[in-house]
Write a structure and sequence with these properties.
Rossmann fold, six-stranded antiparallel beta barrel, elongated
């Protein structure tokens, strides 16, 4: 059955949701009650709670958010007859260590990854390069699992996805994730088979994997996927790769309007000493110039300076152009749409309207996802892992939080993000974490000495990372540590008692025939008389033909010394079921 997609607002009443889903309202109220929430027909649920309830009911429905109606909301732009060709926006993706950032370095002619911890891109960055007198906009996406944030806005941001696959390593999990992203974003795919300069390179194997397992058939095999064998190290075929990107983009006839008010998306935001809020924007239509008033979500400001990714001053940014601006009063959120305002009064009004709308939605939502998750966790005894996340820039913060939420715990651990923000870890963060058994994760930020002393005094654990996947691995390990070990018993063999030779308080000596499996010293055994469980004993020694034996197998006779904690009576005809018992650490 095809899953139905239903659009709802950020918050809905129980009655509205029931009508939308074509369900009796009593069904929804009953499901909420089962999860510990006594709701009425007029009680409001936030979007996440509604999604949880739909999932709990097992409905073939996927909920999506309706676009809000406030002034800052993104409106789909309709191209005019005067629309002009624009540069393609290209996302570069691939598995960790397959060389996607190195490929960008080679294309751009600078060492982008030099300042990246572990040589892996830590936040989304946007660049532009000129090839054959044409511009190409490149998005370098976070490594490992952290392009969750980009996926949300991928259909808006990306025209072409270059999927980088190492010729000596083949298709890996993040390769598959990149393919899924490109398809969900309806972006065209170009495969760059990198590291062909290596002796162990096998580009034909990569092509076979992509064709047979993922439906990406190379053009030379009669398919429609462009695949280029390249080397970021030697520069081999990089021009050919860019030629193919432009060719694929030309087939899409990418256009934008220049003579309209500028609009686009926020792709980065962070604070800098002496500059204030530095915001990375991607212009989609119109032309952005200094002194323009901008509104992005609940933030607004007047463009004070504009610069490209190299820090060079810009006087104008047109369609598909990434630009860093200063002048915002506060940091906008990654993925926010930006638009122009006539003056500061209008900009402030639009930002305030957006903030009021947010506050109104929050205030009117009686039941939140945290409420229902808390009730659900109490019912299935899930462990809780509370985190507070601080990052250097807004894009990184969004990526880290979204990636943390993607960690599959199988319902065994509930991860709660109790707070987040951009900038160094502060005393307020420590105070917020106190008493909540919360771990503070800092990504590309510092822990000032005074704050470090406060954290030690309040017994708050602060963990700092420079590499995203190391942070995620630590979070996964921390959640695994919360899980109680599982007792695992393994059946080993069975013996039928033929005789009992001596019984004392803590020892029984008996003999019999092995019916199945084997027996050896150290095994545990259940003593059974028919279906009745008599006692549990331990095998302290095994003898065969009056000689100490290491193991005795099925069909053989043997004598056993059984250790007990109390006096146990063993009778002829009883059964001993041998087994091992061990504690196995649960994993996610």
């Amino acid at each position: 059955m095809t899953e139905k997609i239903v659009a709802i607002a950020d918050s809905v009443t129980v009655g509205e949701l029931a009508t939308t889903l074509n369900l009796p309202v009593t069904t929804l109220i009953g499901e909420l009650f089962k999860n510990g929430i006594a709701a009425t027909i007029n009680q409001r649920l936030d979007f996440e709670t509604a999604s949880i309830i739909v999932e709990e009911l097992g409905l073939e429905v996927t909920l999506k958010k309706k676009e809000a109606t406030v002034g800052h909301t993104r409106v789909e732009h309709t191209l005019s007859e005067r629309a002009v060709p624009r540069p393609p926006i290209v996302a570069v993706m691939g598995h960790v260590d397959h060389g996607k950032t190195s490929l960008l370095d080679a294309i751009l002619g600078n060492k982008t990854a030099a300042g990246e911890a572990g040589g892996i891109t830590q936040h989304i960055s946007a660049y532009q390069t000129r090839h054959n007198e044409r511009m190409i906009t490149l998005l370098d996406t976070p490594g490992h699992e952290a392009f969750a944030a980009l996926r949300q806005h991928g259909a808006v941001l990306t025209d072409v996805v270059i999927i980088v696959v190492a010729a000596d390593d083949g298709v890996k999990p993040q390769t598959v994730e990149a393919i899924r992203f490109a398809r969900s974003a309806n972006a065209k795919i170009v495969v760059a088979i990198n590291k062909i300069d290596k002796d162990t390179a096998n580009p034909q194997l990569v092509k076979t994997q992509l064709a047979s397992e993922h439906g990406l058939n190379p053009e030379e095999w009669g398919g429609d996927t462009v695949m280029v064998e390249v080397s970021a190290k030697t520069g081999q075929n990089l021009d050919k790769l860019l030629d193919m990107v432009l060719l694929v983009a030309d087939m899409e006839d990418l256009r934008a309007d220049e003579d309209v008010p500028a609009e686009g998306l926020v792709i980065e935001a962070h604070m800098e000493t002496g500059r204030g809020a530095v915001v990375g924007l991607l212009v989609e239509h119109g032309q952005l110039k200094p002194a323009y008033y901008l509104v992005a979500g609940t933030a607004y400001g007047r463009v004070r300076t504009m610069s490209d990714f190299r820090g060079q001053t810009m006087k104008m940014a047109g369609p598909s152009t990434p630009v860093n601006v200063t002048g915002f009063k506060e940091l906008p959120q990654f993925g926010d749409s930006f638009r122009l305002a006539k003056n500061e009064k209008e900009a402030r009004h639009l930002a305030q309207a957006a903030r009021l709308e947010q506050e109104k939605m929050a205030a009117s939502t009686n039941v939140t996802s945290s409420d229902i998750l808390k009730m659900m966790s109490q019912q299935h005894d899930a462990e809780s892992f509370n985190v507070l996340v601080k990052a250097d820039v807004q894009g990184s913060l969004t990526s880290v939080i979204d990636s943390l939420k993607l960690i599959d715990t199988g319902g065994l651990v509930d991860l709660h993000v109790i707070g987040s923000g951009v900038g160094n870890i502060s005393e307020n963060d420590i105070h917020l974490a106190v008493g909540e058994n919360t771990v503070i994760y800092g990504f590309n930020v510092d822990l000032p000495p005074a704050v470090k002393r406060l954290a030690a005094r309040e017994h708050v654990e602060v963990r700092l990372y420079r590499v995203i996947y190391e942070l995620l691995d630590n979070a996964r390990q921390s959640m695994e540590a919360l899980l109680a070990p599982e007792v695992v018993e393994t059946e080993v063999g069975q013996l039928r008692v033929k005789g009992v030779f001596r019984t004392v308080r803590e020892e029984v000596i008996a003999g019999g025939e092995m019916m199945t499996g084997k027996v050896y010293k150290g095994l545990l055994a259940r003593l059974k008389r028919g279906d009745e469980h008599i006692a549990e004993v331990e095998v302290s020694s095994v003898q065969r033909q009056h000689q100490e034996a290491k193991e005795v197998f099925e069909g053989e006779m043997c004598g056993l010394s059984l250790k007990t904690t109390r006096k146990v009576v063993v009778e002829e005809g009883d059964t001993l079921e041998f087994f091992t018992r061990e504690l196995v650490k649960k994993t996610l």
